[in-house]
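Checklist before submission:
- one chain only
- standard amino acids only
- sequence pasted in full

Submission:
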Amino acid sequence: MIKVNNLHKSFGMNDNKFEVLKGISFEVEQGDFVVILGASGSGKSTLLNVMSGLENADCGEVAYDGRDITGLSDKELTEFRKTDIAYIFQQYYLLPHLNVQSNVKMGAELVGNKDYMKIIEAVGLKDKAKKYPGELSGGEQQRVAVARALAKKPKVLFLDEPTGALDEETGRKVLDFIDKLQKEMGFTVIMVTHNQNIADMAKTVIRMNSGKIVDISKNTTQKSAYEIGW
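Returned file contents:
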């Protein structure tokens, strides 16, 4: 379980200080599929960054099975990010001089996973394992990013606008791969998106506005990537 308690985060100093997160509290069960919605500037991405240890909180707790990561040293936090979580951004951040297999292998080697070719096959890129990022479409590059993240065998997968740079057809394919792999592997998904339709795929939907949570709801049924609107 992930427990977020009274989380605050500000940027700037003195008269220029701006509070982005204003006392955020909620819980996420293991294996949940969470979608976080909100307008630009609502604090969605900042929340994701603090929860994943990419940014420090001003105060509050982010506890994974009772372990509060906000109190970890830099070394401990690096180890946590390496072994417990994975992060997928809107931009792919693939290394252009490495082929698909080598890009995914980088993630796998962080945790000693030698079965990374199974992940490449699972995202439908086995026949393009020797291709370089420049030889792939945007959707294929995003799938490589998904495979690299999942090759770490994370407990929690964070996604920040993973379909933001993709067209509808490609976006649905990427979401479908994530959905199927999540059901198969059992990791927790926490996704930030502007696309409210994607919330229909989630078990838990969190809506934010001006740095606060305004609503948390549960879907009794979850739609597939090909059943949601766009």
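Reviewer check: The radius of gyration is 17 Å.
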